[in-house]
Amino acid sequence: xxxxxxxxxxxxxxxxxxxxxxxxxxxxxxxxxxxxxxxxxxxxxxxxxxxxxxxxxxxxxxxxxxxxxxxxxxxxxxxxxxxxxxxxxxxxxxxxxxxxxxxxxxxxxxxxxxxxxxxxxxxxxxxxxxxxxxxxxxxxxxxxxxxxxxxxxxxxxxxxxxxxxxxxxxxxxxxxxxxxxxxxxxxxxxxxxxxxxxxxxxxxxxxxxxxxxxxxxxxxxxxxxxxxxxxxxxxxxxxxxxxxxxxxxxxxxxxxxxxxxxx
Length: 263
Hints:
The protein has 263 residues and is of the alpha+beta class.
Protein backbone atom coordinates (compact mmCIF):
# COMPACT_ATOMS: atom_id res chain seq x y z
CA UNK A 1 0.00 0.00 0.00
CA UNK A 2 1.46 3.33 -1.06
CA UNK A 3 2.01 6.03 1.53
CA UNK A 4 -0.48 8.87 1.17
CA UNK A 5 0.75 12.39 0.33
CA UNK A 6 -0.69 13.61 3.64
CA UNK A 7 1.37 11.07 5.59
CA UNK A 8 4.51 12.01 3.67
CA UNK A 9 3.89 15.71 4.34
CA UNK A 10 3.40 14.98 8.04
CA UNK A 11 6.70 13.10 8.23
CA UNK A 12 8.48 15.95 6.46
CA UNK A 13 7.04 18.47 8.92
CA UNK A 14 8.26 16.42 11.87
CA UNK A 15 11.73 16.12 10.36
CA UNK A 16 11.89 19.87 9.77
CA UNK A 17 10.62 20.52 13.31
CA UNK A 18 13.57 18.69 14.85
CA UNK A 19 15.82 20.94 16.92
CA UNK A 20 18.97 20.73 19.01
CA UNK A 21 20.07 22.85 22.00
CA UNK A 22 23.64 24.15 21.81
CA UNK A 23 25.99 25.56 24.44
CA UNK A 24 28.84 27.39 22.70
CA UNK A 25 31.89 28.78 24.52
CA UNK A 26 34.81 30.83 23.27
CA UNK A 27 38.15 29.00 23.18
CA UNK A 28 40.56 30.16 25.88
CA UNK A 29 43.27 30.70 23.24
CA UNK A 30 41.13 33.43 21.64
CA UNK A 31 39.84 35.02 24.85
CA UNK A 32 41.45 38.14 26.31
CA UNK A 33 40.42 37.29 29.88
CA UNK A 34 41.50 34.43 32.08
CA UNK A 35 38.00 33.89 33.35
CA UNK A 36 35.69 31.66 31.32
CA UNK A 37 33.21 33.69 29.32
CA UNK A 38 29.48 33.19 29.48
CA UNK A 39 28.26 30.58 27.00
CA UNK A 40 26.02 31.32 24.05
CA UNK A 41 22.86 29.22 24.39
CA UNK A 42 20.57 28.60 21.45
CA UNK A 43 18.11 26.03 20.13
CA UNK A 44 18.73 25.42 16.43
CA UNK A 45 17.00 23.36 13.70
CA UNK A 46 18.70 20.04 13.06
CA UNK A 47 18.54 20.75 9.32
CA UNK A 48 20.37 24.06 9.63
CA UNK A 49 24.11 24.73 9.36
CA UNK A 50 26.67 25.98 11.88
CA UNK A 51 27.91 28.63 9.45
CA UNK A 52 24.58 30.45 9.81
CA UNK A 53 25.42 31.06 13.49
CA UNK A 54 28.81 32.68 12.96
CA UNK A 55 27.66 36.34 12.60
CA UNK A 56 25.65 36.29 15.83
CA UNK A 57 28.34 34.32 17.68
CA UNK A 58 30.92 36.87 16.58
CA UNK A 59 28.75 39.73 17.85
CA UNK A 60 28.20 37.98 21.18
CA UNK A 61 31.88 37.15 21.84
CA UNK A 62 33.50 40.26 20.28
CA UNK A 63 34.07 42.02 23.65
CA UNK A 64 36.13 39.03 24.83
CA UNK A 65 38.16 38.44 21.65
CA UNK A 66 41.91 39.05 21.70
CA UNK A 67 41.57 40.42 18.18
CA UNK A 68 38.06 41.90 17.80
CA UNK A 69 38.86 43.03 14.25
CA UNK A 70 39.08 39.46 12.96
CA UNK A 71 36.29 38.65 10.43
CA UNK A 72 33.45 36.47 11.67
CA UNK A 73 33.92 33.98 8.82
CA UNK A 74 37.41 33.12 10.12
CA UNK A 75 35.80 31.33 13.05
CA UNK A 76 35.28 27.59 13.31
CA UNK A 77 33.58 25.28 15.77
CA UNK A 78 34.78 22.07 17.36
CA UNK A 79 33.49 19.27 19.56
CA UNK A 80 36.06 17.58 21.80
CA UNK A 81 38.85 19.03 19.62
CA UNK A 82 37.30 17.68 16.40
CA UNK A 83 36.59 20.35 13.76
CA UNK A 84 32.95 20.36 12.64
CA UNK A 85 32.33 20.64 8.92
CA UNK A 86 30.22 23.62 7.91
CA UNK A 87 28.46 21.92 5.00
CA UNK A 88 27.10 19.09 7.19
CA UNK A 89 23.67 19.70 8.78
CA UNK A 90 23.87 20.33 12.52
CA UNK A 91 21.72 17.31 13.34
CA UNK A 92 23.98 15.07 11.30
CA UNK A 93 27.07 16.34 13.13
CA UNK A 94 25.42 15.64 16.48
CA UNK A 95 24.43 12.13 15.42
CA UNK A 96 27.97 11.38 14.21
CA UNK A 97 29.69 12.44 17.42
CA UNK A 98 27.04 12.24 20.15
CA UNK A 99 24.31 10.01 18.75
CA UNK A 100 22.27 7.28 20.36
CA UNK A 101 24.43 4.16 19.96
CA UNK A 102 27.28 3.59 22.46
CA UNK A 103 30.71 4.51 21.09
CA UNK A 104 32.40 1.93 23.30
CA UNK A 105 31.54 -1.76 22.77
CA UNK A 106 31.65 -2.22 26.55
CA UNK A 107 29.13 0.58 27.05
CA UNK A 108 25.72 -0.81 27.93
CA UNK A 109 23.99 2.20 26.39
CA UNK A 110 22.35 3.31 29.63
CA UNK A 111 23.83 6.80 29.51
CA UNK A 112 21.11 9.39 29.90
CA UNK A 113 20.68 11.30 26.66
CA UNK A 114 19.93 14.44 28.65
CA UNK A 115 23.54 14.44 29.88
CA UNK A 116 24.63 15.07 26.28
CA UNK A 117 22.38 18.11 25.93
CA UNK A 118 22.83 20.93 25.38
CA UNK A 119 25.51 19.92 22.90
CA UNK A 120 28.69 21.66 24.06
CA UNK A 121 30.80 23.23 21.31
CA UNK A 122 33.81 25.54 21.26
CA UNK A 123 34.16 28.60 19.01
CA UNK A 124 37.71 29.13 17.77
CA UNK A 125 39.49 31.71 15.62
CA UNK A 126 43.13 30.60 15.77
CA UNK A 127 44.84 27.53 14.26
CA UNK A 128 42.29 27.09 11.48
CA UNK A 129 42.34 23.40 10.37
CA UNK A 130 42.89 23.87 6.63
CA UNK A 131 43.13 20.14 5.98
CA UNK A 132 39.72 19.45 7.53
CA UNK A 133 37.63 22.54 6.84
CA UNK A 134 37.04 24.77 3.85
CA UNK A 135 37.49 28.49 4.31
CA UNK A 136 34.31 30.57 4.31
CA UNK A 137 33.61 34.03 2.93
CA UNK A 138 31.66 36.95 4.34
CA UNK A 139 28.87 36.71 1.74
CA UNK A 140 28.12 33.02 2.28
CA UNK A 141 28.96 32.07 -1.31
CA UNK A 142 31.11 29.07 -0.36
CA UNK A 143 28.39 27.40 1.68
CA UNK A 144 25.76 28.16 -0.97
CA UNK A 145 27.96 26.58 -3.65
CA UNK A 146 28.27 23.42 -1.54
CA UNK A 147 24.50 23.23 -1.17
CA UNK A 148 23.85 23.84 -4.87
CA UNK A 149 26.39 21.20 -5.87
CA UNK A 150 24.68 18.66 -3.58
CA UNK A 151 21.29 19.49 -5.14
CA UNK A 152 22.75 19.05 -8.63
CA UNK A 153 24.28 15.70 -7.69
CA UNK A 154 20.93 14.49 -6.35
CA UNK A 155 19.22 15.74 -9.51
CA UNK A 156 21.54 13.73 -11.75
CA UNK A 157 21.07 10.55 -9.69
CA UNK A 158 17.30 10.98 -9.41
CA UNK A 159 16.55 11.80 -13.05
CA UNK A 160 19.61 10.57 -14.92
CA UNK A 161 20.50 14.11 -15.93
CA UNK A 162 21.03 17.45 -14.24
CA UNK A 163 18.94 19.67 -16.47
CA UNK A 164 15.97 19.75 -14.06
CA UNK A 165 17.82 21.96 -11.59
CA UNK A 166 19.52 23.84 -14.40
CA UNK A 167 16.06 24.59 -15.79
CA UNK A 168 14.98 26.45 -12.65
CA UNK A 169 14.66 30.19 -12.87
CA UNK A 170 17.11 32.35 -10.94
CA UNK A 171 14.30 33.31 -8.55
CA UNK A 172 13.56 29.65 -7.85
CA UNK A 173 17.20 28.75 -7.20
CA UNK A 174 17.62 31.81 -4.95
CA UNK A 175 14.39 31.04 -3.09
CA UNK A 176 15.49 27.45 -2.48
CA UNK A 177 18.68 28.59 -0.75
CA UNK A 178 16.86 31.37 1.11
CA UNK A 179 14.35 28.81 2.38
CA UNK A 180 17.21 26.76 3.80
CA UNK A 181 18.66 29.83 5.52
CA UNK A 182 15.26 30.86 6.91
CA UNK A 183 14.26 27.26 7.70
CA UNK A 184 11.01 27.86 5.83
CA UNK A 185 9.44 24.55 4.80
CA UNK A 186 6.62 26.08 2.73
CA UNK A 187 9.01 28.17 0.64
CA UNK A 188 11.39 25.21 0.32
CA UNK A 189 8.67 22.88 -0.99
CA UNK A 190 7.56 25.41 -3.57
CA UNK A 191 10.84 24.84 -5.39
CA UNK A 192 11.67 21.35 -4.13
CA UNK A 193 8.48 19.89 -5.62
CA UNK A 194 9.60 21.12 -9.04
CA UNK A 195 12.78 19.08 -8.63
CA UNK A 196 10.96 15.95 -7.44
CA UNK A 197 8.17 16.01 -10.01
CA UNK A 198 9.46 17.50 -13.25
CA UNK A 199 6.91 17.16 -16.10
CA UNK A 200 7.65 14.29 -18.46
CA UNK A 201 10.58 12.97 -16.41
CA UNK A 202 9.99 9.71 -14.50
CA UNK A 203 11.79 9.08 -11.22
CA UNK A 204 14.70 6.74 -11.93
CA UNK A 205 16.62 6.51 -8.66
CA UNK A 206 16.54 7.69 -5.06
CA UNK A 207 19.71 9.65 -4.18
CA UNK A 208 21.38 8.64 -0.92
CA UNK A 209 24.50 10.23 0.53
CA UNK A 210 26.70 8.41 3.04
CA UNK A 211 28.57 10.70 5.43
CA UNK A 212 31.87 9.63 6.98
CA UNK A 213 32.92 11.03 10.37
CA UNK A 214 35.98 13.22 10.75
CA UNK A 215 39.14 11.37 11.71
CA UNK A 216 40.44 11.81 15.23
CA UNK A 217 43.14 14.41 15.84
CA UNK A 218 46.79 13.41 16.19
CA UNK A 219 48.09 13.83 19.72
CA UNK A 220 51.45 13.24 21.34
CA UNK A 221 51.79 10.11 23.43
CA UNK A 222 53.79 9.81 26.61
CA UNK A 223 56.82 8.77 24.57
CA UNK A 224 56.72 12.05 22.68
CA UNK A 225 55.65 10.46 19.40
CA UNK A 226 52.55 11.68 17.60
CA UNK A 227 49.90 8.98 17.50
CA UNK A 228 46.32 9.11 16.21
CA UNK A 229 43.71 8.74 18.92
CA UNK A 230 40.87 6.33 18.25
CA UNK A 231 37.77 8.31 17.33
CA UNK A 232 34.69 8.05 19.50
CA UNK A 233 31.96 7.76 16.89
CA UNK A 234 28.28 7.09 17.45
CA UNK A 235 26.38 5.07 14.87
CA UNK A 236 22.71 4.54 14.09
CA UNK A 237 23.42 0.92 13.13
CA UNK A 238 26.53 -1.18 13.24
CA UNK A 239 28.16 -2.57 10.12
CA UNK A 240 26.49 -5.62 8.56
CA UNK A 241 29.01 -8.37 7.88
CA UNK A 242 29.31 -9.14 4.15
CA UNK A 243 28.92 -12.59 2.63
CA UNK A 244 32.10 -14.43 1.70
CA UNK A 245 32.65 -17.65 -0.17
CA UNK A 246 34.34 -20.39 1.86
CA UNK A 247 35.32 -23.84 0.57
CA UNK A 248 33.41 -26.92 1.69
CA UNK A 249 34.16 -30.52 0.73
CA UNK A 250 31.52 -33.02 -0.41
CA UNK A 251 31.36 -36.67 0.59
CA UNK A 252 33.58 -37.68 -2.34
CA UNK A 253 36.27 -35.12 -1.56
CA UNK A 254 35.33 -32.65 -4.29
CA UNK A 255 35.51 -29.00 -3.27
CA UNK A 256 32.49 -26.75 -3.59
CA UNK A 257 31.84 -23.13 -2.58
CA UNK A 258 29.27 -22.10 -0.01
CA UNK A 259 28.31 -18.62 1.10
CA UNK A 260 28.78 -18.00 4.79
CA UNK A 261 28.71 -14.89 6.85
CA UNK A 262 32.02 -13.59 8.06
CA UNK A 263 32.10 -14.16 11.85
